[in-house]
Amino acid sequence: MQRRNQTKNQSWDNVAPWYDKLTGNSGQYFHEHVIFQNVTRLLNVQKDDRILDLACGQGAYSRELAKQGARVTGVDSSKNLLDRAAHYKSENIEYVLDDARNLHKLSGTHFDAAVSILALQNIDPLDSLFTNVSKLLEHNGAFVIVILHPILRSPRITGWEEDPNRKIQFRRIDRYVTSMKIPITMHPGKTQ
Questions:
Q1: What is the Cα–Cα distance from 134 to 113, expressed in whole angstroms?
Q2: Cβ-Cβ contacts under 8 Å for 124 (sequence gap 6 or more)
Q3: Which residues lie below 8 Å from residue 176, measured CB to CB, with a gap of 6+?
Q4: Measured between alpha carbons, how far is 127 from 125 in angstroms, rounded to an integer?
């Protein structure tokens, strides 16, 4: 998903081939064996449930939901990631190019549940996203969100260290629960 005033180098379109290669058709090991299984359990997916996969990327979890019998609408603001999602053919999935903060193209549509996996930390601002998702959900519809814990995404305020005396590696945290914005490195290790 994109942030307002985002530069081209911060767009997921710019890194779609890398991200698709990284995650593949069904996600990485952690997606498949931890995140997807537990989110599916939390959603209590039933056949023909209408589920919104917000910031679906190249559709790995949308495809998992469809395998469970759900009717899925995957939304992302990256045309290149959605093109890759469409490449992995799957029934019961519609992909929509839209911004998670406004969801204009889904106006009047209703879902039994919504999900966003590892994306909300990349969306700014979030207020309109929550307002619009709540309008799209049926009464008592669930919205399951998975995000990285901030200590795992906070350069300059946290990092790995080793204690040679105790022979352990640990996560050093210099600040915690501090409001701040940090630019996203879209393709770690490469110059943008």
A1: 10
A2: 3, 4, 181
A3: 150, 151
A4: 6
Kind and range of the H or E element at 133?
A: helix 127-136
Q: Amino acid identity of 120?
A: L
3-state secondary structure of 44: coil
Distance CA 190, CA 192 (A): 6
Taking 60 as the threshold, does the pLDDT of residue 160 lie above it?
yes
Residue 84 · residue 58 · CB < 8 Å: yes
What is the C-alpha to C-alpha distance for residues 36 and 56, in angstroms, rounded to an integer? 13
Question: Given its phi and psi angles, is residue 177 left (phi above 0), alpha (psi -120 to 50 degrees) or beta?
Answer: left
Residue range 74-129, pLDDT digits in tens: 999 999 999 999 888 788 999 999 999 999 999 999 999 999 999 988 888 889 99
pTM over 0.85: no
Give me the DSSP letters along 91-126.
TTEEEEE--TTT-GGGTT--EEEEEEES-GGG-S--
The SS3 assignment for 183 reads coil
Q: What is the pLDDT of residue 26?
A: 79
Minimal CA–CA distance to 114: which of 39, 15, 173? 39
- The span from the CA of 32 to the CA of 19, in Å, is 16
What the block records as the tokens of 146 is 């998975």
Element at 37 (helix H, strand E): helix 36-43
